[in-house]
Amino acid sequence: MSGWDRVRASRSRSSQNSAETTRTTSRTVTLGRVQPQAPGHRTIYCNDREANQPLRFKGNSIATTKYNLLTFLPKGLFEQFRRVANCYFLMISILSTTPMSPVNPVTNVVPLSLVLLVSLIKEAWEDWKRFQNDMTINNTPIDVLQDQRWEPIPWKKLQVGDIIRVKQDGFFPADLLFLASTNADGVCYIETANLDGETNLKIRKALERTWDYLTPEKASEFKGEVQCEQPNNSLYTFTGNLIVQKQTLPINPNQLLLRGCSLRNTEYIIGAVIFAGHETKVMMNSMNIPSKRSTLERKLDKLILTLFGTLSVMCLIGAIGSAVIIDRKHFYLGLHDMRKTVEDDQFNPDNRFLVALLNLFTLITLFSPIIPISLYVSIETIKFFQSTQYINKDLRMYHVESNTPALARTSNLNEELGQVEYIFSDKTGTLTRNLMEFFKCSIGGESYGTGITEIEREVAHQIGTKIREVEKPANFIKEKGFNFDDPRLLLGAWRNEPNPDICKEFFRCLAICHTVLPEGEESPEKIRYQAASPDEAALVTAAKNFGFFFYRRTPTMIYVRESHVEKMGNIEDVSYEILNVLEFNSTRKRQSVVCRYPDGRLVLYCKGADTVVYERLADGNEDINKVTREHLEQFGSSGLRTLCLAYRDLSPDMYEKWNEKFIQAKSSLRDRELKLDEVGELIEKDLILIGCTAIEDKLQEGVPACIQTLSRAGIKIWVLTGDKMETAINIAYACNLINNEMKKFIISSETDAIREVEDRGDQVEIARFIREEVKKELQKCLDDVQQMHSVSGPKLALVIDGKCLMYALDPSLRVMLLNLSMNCSSVVCCRVSPLQKAQVTSLVKKGAKKITLSIGDGANDVSMIQAAHIGVGISGQEGMQAVMASDFAIAQFRFLTDLLLVHGRWSYLRICKVVLYFFYKNLTFTLTQFWFTFQCGFSGQRYYDDWFQSLYNVIFTSMPVIMLGLFDKDVSASLSKKYPELYKEGMKNVFFTWRVVAIWAFFSVYQSLVLYHFVAISSSSAQNSSGKIFGIWDVSTMAFTCVVVTVNLRLLMMCNTITKYHYITVGGSILAWFIFVFLYSGIMTTHDRQENVYFVIYVLMSTIYFYFTILLVPVVALLGDFIYQGVQRWFFPYNYQIVQEIHSDEPRDMREMLELEIGNQLTPEEARSLAIAQLPREISKHTGFAFDSPGYESFFAAQLGIYAPQKAWDVARRASMRSKPRLGKKN
């Protein structure tokens, strides 16, 4: 006997005792432990806190914070030191505290501490905001039943088993068992927007046994026992039983109200807490999105390791050199008087190995700036601003109709957007609008509907043919969800058709077989339908327009107002009793209802995918079935979404027997969904086909142009859809994904050979045969590809269906599929499951090692979005689950052009330059110290003052590089889209290769040699005003000044766009150095660190040598870069440099200023200013520069109907202009 069975048995034996005794007996406690429950299940005692206390259920308080007071410091520091660079700087800081360190430990510890402090403050601030949000939620009041009255308590004090009351528009504080409602028949309406983003209302129904527990007096009498599954994250499943007075009642998701949902259109409901706090389904779903790192960031790690290797080599050279050179003959070093200290051991000629070892550690601290401490902080800052200020506020990616801007949910992958090579896209809601309209249908083998779809128009345009369209009558009224035109069915004309009875069945199936909720007044004009999907709403709307108006629903009844049934003008309200609902899921691909007519007729109505419904049709009616299949193919070719409708009359005896099995399956605690599917199979057979529906889902605006632009950029686009092959192919044609010039490979399971094997029913044989067929097709396609490679053949496209894809993804065939796919410009996978979408994405991501992007709008796209390098969610009609799982969110597919070709390119280019510049400036600085090591006998003597070295990265060179990362722009946004081929440079990663790094390293070595030797040699004969030669601190301060000036000017040379911010930061950085050195050199303290550089800068600036050096040395140092850049641009230009030259004489596009626009909503005055800013400008003919002339604004504005008043300077300017006489040509 299982644990919960023993509990129930003990409770039944003691039922004659008092309630208190009963509870004590039911809780068998042994040795201080609760009696074990059945594996995978829990038992909850409703309205009895004492009985639940030993079970130790979790409380309802939630905490989404990462830290608490005790864990913040250790956990926060652990997170920071997971970065290799921070560990490196910690090691340097520790070494700098040892006696062998040539630098003051403060100069290493302080910068590291500042970096860690800033990061920890950021973490603390973010966690504090989470804590405040948690406290607000935890302290929200809720009515709980206590002593036969409702008492308000905070959410956090709720316990499992409590009976609570939730009022209209209130949120459910925990996962509740729905007991009673103020609505009739124990129903309530809920909104699940916080769970899945869907705003359509959903209906929930309490068990009839608990409807009476509505008042506090009645509710206090409720003493039920719930046996249910353990907490899990499945939002749409729930299995359990409610035991009330020895009666066992099955519980399903219809009786579960999930935390985070809100109550609508219901005064209040009564519920019992089942799962609380972190055990609620919404909290168990709130896991973090998989952590993603960009490819460039991973390459940055390799670069840092290379720098560390360079550092090691430099230190090893210095250590060996110190061991070789050290000798007692250097009497001035005092080596004859050695003591047993670390300082003396470092220069002890008797132990050269120890000298080398100790000097190795000395040089590590001395050369530590080669790896920049501010690199990660600067890159994070740049990426943060790129996301929040550029991507999020780009008006070109703002969708006015839905008031939806673009959203960068992470800033880690900005530059990855500039390297995407493969895009995996869903179809419905991503390429199309997911705004469904009933367009055509087939009833009893007769096709109805005269319209021409957008897909047909686009395909005809691609092919170059014309389509003759039927003119719509003047009285044609188009309603949302209904765009059907055929006089044979409308206005009751279907009664005159040869098959009016089957038409009636068709319309009733549309009006009855659904889960739609009506809202508003019960009139055809004012009613609103709340549907789980746009398809369902369109079908019910179609039934209404055909004269079968669904206007009211209860949990057991559907009310339909039927007109034109017998004769014109006759209207009748008919109520249909809904006995059973077999719900739709991705496995069943169909939905069925069993209903009872008022005259007692029992009918099963079924609608679903054609592949599923045709398998369950009764023998006979072969003609209608065949004709309908032809209509399905025609509709699919037109890009329409199809569903088959069928019915079956049931006898009362057969239904009663089946219903017993259905109730048993519904009451099962284990594998309930599987058992319900099996029971459904028993009745969903021997169906009679009524017909099929065809719904149009129009293409989103700009999709064909967007795909064409992305294809020109070298991006390969794959469409992964659940639609039929014909529909998918025609959508691909309409989107410019496939054209007639392409060679198409089609691998389909809908062949005569496969059908013949499937008809035999041997599953093992079917699997073997399809696998062999797929292998044969893949090999054939690969052979064709090899032949085409020998000559310049056409582009290739692959179309494969889900059944064949399942076998093609087998490990033995996966490589063949990948090789074939890599050679195709476009791939269309149809009839695929969500899992297959993710598998295909992973295949390319891991197999081809290419940067992938997945884009979708529904919950079925989440796995695909998370599998790719970059996930993009469309905030559309299917809720927000795709957006919540994504890295970037946009409202329309066409915005991918701006996201990738503009922001992606710019981000990639900027981050590459930032990383290379950091590499260059730190290597240059460190190498000057390295060259000095040779001159000082490898003794570890520092060349620069400690604070010079520490502030080099933090102050003197930090801000200009951030401006580079924020504002550098090679070409404008409009040119980026005009020349999408520029994007290919990012794919090939041409700006961050080892060759590029080597070039920067070469010039870094060259500049360091110039900066060190020019200053050192020239200063050897230089004298100050008092006639003394310069010492080490004079020379090093001079060299450091040249380094700061040189590296800041080098940044300006690498900029494509120089703004006022560049001048401010570059000039400000150089000025900051002079201000610092003036103050630092003018302070005298007891410490020798200041003594070294005391008054140095004043002495230097009193000589002509300083000014001559500060002008000459940076020029000579940068001369090599200048020559290289000139030669490279003239003879080996990048693509963007060619575009720059082509458009060098054009005025700056004023529309580019929109990137800095903050508001999404413009006032009328702002809109007018924006319109004027976008007017064409004329280049002034009075200068050699492309300055915009304001003198022609008023003219262009008038041409476009925009009021732009003349400005005073217009008149003055025109008055000063002289018209030159035209000169005739000389003979």
UniProtKB/TrEMBL annotation:
**Subcellular location, principal:** membrane
User: Where found in the cell?
Assistant: Endomembrane system; Membrane
UniProt-recorded name of the protein: Phospholipid-transporting ATPase
Q: Give the P-type ATPase C-terminal domain ranges.
A: 883-1133
- For whether the record's keyword set contains Glycosyltransferase, the answer is no
Its record classes its membrane topology as: Multi-pass membrane protein
Which Pfam families does the UniProt record give?
Answer: Cation_ATPase (PF13246), PhoLip_ATPase_C (PF16212), PhoLip_ATPase_N (PF16209)
Keyword vocabulary terms for this entry = ATP-binding, Magnesium, Membrane, Metal-binding, Nucleotide-binding, Translocase, Transmembrane, Transmembrane helix, Transport
Reactions that this protein is recorded to catalyse? ATP + H2O + phospholipidSide 1 = ADP + phosphate + phospholipidSide 2
Q: What is its EC number?
A: 7.6.2.1
User: What SUPFAM superfamilies does the record point to?
Assistant: Calcium ATPase, transduction domain A (SSF81653), Calcium ATPase, transmembrane domain M (SSF81665), HAD-like (SSF56784), Metal cation-transporting ATPase, ATP-binding domain N (SSF81660)
What stretches pass through the bilayer?
303-326, 353-377, 914-932, 952-971, 992-1017, 1029-1049, 1061-1083, 1095-1119
* Enzyme class (EC, first level): translocase
Q: Which family does it belong to?
A: Belongs to the cation transport ATPase (P-type) (TC 3.A.3) family. Type IV subfamily.
Occurrences of domain P-type ATPase N-terminal (ranges): 44-108
Region named Disordered: 1-27
